[in-house]
Amino acid sequence: MTRISPRLAIRAGNIFDGERARGPGMVVIHDGRITGIDTSRAQPPADWHIHDFGDGVTVMPGLIDCHVHLGLDASPQAIANVTTDDDETLLGHMMAAATTALRAGITTVRDLGDRRFLSLRLRDHLTHNCIPAPAIVAAGPPITTHGGHLAVMGGEAEGPDQLKAAVDERASRGCEVVKVMASGGVTTPGSRPHDTQYGPKDLRLIVEQARERGLSTAAHVHAVSIVDALEAGLDSLEHVTFFTAEGVATDQRLIERIARSEAFVSLTIGSVPQADKLLPPAAIAQRMEQIQANAARLCNAGAKVVLGTDAGLSPGKPHDVLPYSLQALVDLGMPPVRALHAVTAVAADACNLHGRKGRLIQGADADLIAITGDPLTDISTIHNVTAVYRDGHPVIDRRLTA
C-alpha cells in the first residue's frame, strides 16, 4: 500500500459525493479521512500532495457490494469446494477474491456466508499485514436449520437456546451482521427456495438478540419468508425473488409494503457477459425474466434498493461482478445517479456504515475511486477504473502501468 503525505487533495473534472454530482473540484483528505469537497478551484496549500486526474475523470466513493461470499471461488463447483478445501486453501481463494473486487473499484464488501468464520481471520490478516483489500463486513456462517440451505458452512441452529448461542458467538467473534436463511435455496440438495426454514417467532428472536449486541441482520428470503422477515424487523432482505413452487409470483401489495418499510432490499441481479457455461442454476434461469420484472417493480415503488451480487456463487458471479450488476440496475429503468447512490451511500447504510463509507463527507473514510468518463450519464464507464484509494492511500493507479 503506497504511503503518501497525510494531507492529500484529489482533483477531477467531476465529483460525485454519493448523493449528487458536485461538478469540478477536489476531495480533501487528512490522515485517511475526508475533510471536505472544495469546488472553489482554489489551490491547496503548498505542502499538500495533489493527485490531479483532469477534466475527463469522475471521482466518487468506492463501490459497496452488500452480499458476497469471499470463500466461494466462482467455479461451477463453488459450493462443493467450500466443503472439501482446507482452511489455508480457502483463505488463499479469499485473498484472491478480495483483490479481484478491489481492482474493480469495490472498496467495501459484506460477506454474508463463510465457513467457520474465515472472513474474520482474513480480515485480521489483511489489516495486520497492510495488504490492500476492500473493507470486510462479516456475518460468519449463515444461521440455518439442520441440513438446511448452506448448512455446509457450519451455521446450523434450531430452537431458542441454539439461536441465542449462535448470535452470541457471532458477536463475541467480531461479526457485524447476523445472516439467517429464512427460506431454502437452489444450490443445496433437498432445499427449495419457496420453503420456509424459520417462522416469525424464531426470526424475531434473532433480531432481538442481534440488536441487543449492536449487530445488524440480513435474511435470505425468496417467498412467504419475505413477509415473516418484514414482520420480524430484519434490516435487509436478500434476493427477494418471490419464488413459488410453480414459478415467480407478483404481489404488488407486498412490494409496496416492502417499499414502505425500513428494510433494505438487496437485489441479486446482473452477471458477467455470459457464455452458455456461465448460466445460473436452472431454477433461476427459467425464472429470470419474472425475477427481473419484480426487481423493477421494487425499484419503481421506491424500495431502499442496494446490490448484493452473491459474488463467488457461480462462474457468472465472479468477485468483480458488481459493475455489471450496476448496468443491470440501470437496464431495469433506474437512472444512473440513483443506481450509483444505491451502491455507495445507501449500501453504506445497509452495511451499518453510515458516515464512514459510501459518501464523500467530512469524517468519512477516504475510500474513493477515479473513473475515466462520467458514469452519471453513461453507467458503462464504471468499468473504467483509473485509481482506487483505501483510507486515503492509493492502492491501484493504472496511470502508472498504462
Write up what this structure looks like.
By secondary structure, the protein is of the alpha/beta class. 30% of the residues lie in helices and 22% in strands. It is globular and about 65 Å long. The two termini are 19 Å apart.
What secondary-structure arrangement, pairings included, does this model have?
Blueprint: E1 7-16, E2 21-30, E3 33-38, E4 49-52, E5 57-61, E6 63-68, H1 78-84, H2 87-103, E7 106-111, H3 118-128, E8 135-138, H4 159-173, E9 177-181, H5 200-212, E10 216-221, H6 225-232, E11 236-239, H7 252-260, E12 264-267, H8 282-285, H9 288-301, E13 304-307, H10 322-331, H11 336-342, H12 345-350, E14 368-372, E15 385-390, E16 393-397
Parallel strand pairs: 1-4, 1-5, 6-7, 7-8, 9-10, 10-11, 11-12, 12-13
Antiparallel strand pairs: 1-2, 2-3, 5-14, 14-15, 15-16
Helix pairs in contact: 2-3, 4-5, 5-6, 7-9
Task: Give a quick set of tags describing it.
402 residues, eight-stranded mixed β-sheet, five-stranded parallel β-sheet, 22% strand, globular
Cα distance spanning the termini: 19 Å
The unreliable regions are: none
**Rough outline:** globular
Q: What structural category do the secondary elements indicate?
A: alpha/beta
Radius of gyration: 20 Å
Percent of sequence in beta strands: 15-25%
User: Which range best describes the helical content: under 10%, 10-25%, 25-40%, 40-55%, 55-70% or over 70%?
Assistant: 25-40%
What is the number of strand segments?
A: 16
Number of helices: 12
Give the SSE string: EEEEEEHHEHEHEHEHEHEHHEHHHEEE
Can you give the mean pLDDT? 94
Biggest sheet statistics:
8 strands, mixed
- Quaternary arrangement of the chains shown? single chain
